[in-house]
Amino acid sequence: MPINKDDLLITKVPKNKGGRPRKHPLPVKPVPSVNPDTLRVDVNRALYRKDFFAFYQDLFPNIKGEVFENNWHVKALCDDIQPDLERAATGKARLKHVDANIGPRTGKSFIYNVAAPLWFHLLMPKAEIVTVTNGSRLSGKMLGFTKKVIKSDWFKLHYPEMTLVVDNESGYEWSTGGKRTAFGIDSKILGENTDLTITDDLLDSPTATSDAERNNVLNKLMHDIFGRFNNKAVGLHINFNQRLHVQDVSGAIQAQLAEYFRVIKLPSEAKSSADVIPSEWFDRYTPEPGTGNRLLWDAPGRLSRPDLNFERARLGTNGYSQQHLQRPRSRDGGILKTKWFTDNTVTADEWKLKSQGRHVEYQVFLDGAETTNPLNDATCWALVGKLDNQVFVLDVQWRRLTLPDLKRSLAAWLDANRHGLYPATRVWIEGKSIGKSLISEMKELVPNVIFLELQPGRDSKAARCIGIESYVEGGRARILAGQPWTEEFIDECSSFTGKESGKRHDDALDTLIYAVRNAKEGDFFFAPI
Asked: What predicted TM-score, i.e. pTM, was given to this entire model?
């Protein structure tokens, strides 16, 4: 549409009814000039009030003077917590408290323990906030970061009306009446009522492994911290930590207070959406070529593969599983102890030397499931060699496929296996679920291998697991060391306690139980086809 130049004029000369210019035009008020810096501040304030992530992004350089490093999870966490903060600040009934299980080097403390309290006070200037960490030192450190932001030129420029009237080592108070009190869990926590409570890594590694110290922390959480709200229907509690023990703070929350909390779970690496909460966030992880894994933050110095390899070496398998995978377990294991496996691994060279010139029977034990849903158990099969009344687990595979794709995948694997180091002559398949159909059709696809049906019997999985306990404890279940699947296989087999409720992936344990029972009893619970 063409522009009328007259429309661009600030004023038009008034005309009379005859179209002639008036002798005395009406006066025109001058347009006041606008300071662009003031306008920018006003625009930012409006944006920050509506967008917690925008506030955090511009706040971040003022914490430690570092450049803001972005990754998808930062915005996801900010966007996730914003509605909860807004509801609490505006007096709306709470939906649920938040329990976030997130590993190190993700920026979680800056989001939840520095930015969130500040943003909450902007929404609710008279709010009372309590933050608690695992010790007075960390509490002071987080409080110091927050005060550094408050005293920055950026904050003073955008919020000149927000001034401190109290500033001491245990917190601060605004001229508006709002305040933040910061404790270490090791200090005497007074009965402070709050509008927002934030608990940040209440346990560290030493206290998490001590029953007495862990119970002391949990008692303080339940009796002195949780539930002390000015308005019990509105007040919000945000707990965030990396997992350190099955009975750590998140363990207690999820066991005793599950109906009051929603869970966030962000492992440093994940194999499926079942590992991540919310599960749809798994799609935003970075695929790692050739491994099937996905990484949370694939950046050098953060959580790239070299960084994670270093962390695994530094923390050990158990520590890495807890802190980075958010998958806590007893340090000893479940019914089958971790040490029974790790003390009896065998290298490829050791197996080659041991089996050289010997007759070894290689068999495959398969627990089948037709699914592409990562929340469900996968099909798992283990290639096992039997020698000297010992079983040697030499390969383990997991698949989540439809039945046609699973048949093709298994057939291709068996064909490759036939020409490999450990050629299997028998494949045992559990007769439940898709087992019978799989056996029948695999006979047609792979005629040179014998397929046999397994039945687990009437015993529970816990009873069957206990049935192989002495065999495994005696060091007769040997696992091939240094393979991509070794740690996951050991983790699945040693994590099972028999008390689990809900879905958990323990299909690998079934294959081990079948392999050991086969070695102990010979032909068992099977119907030859």
From this structure: 0.67
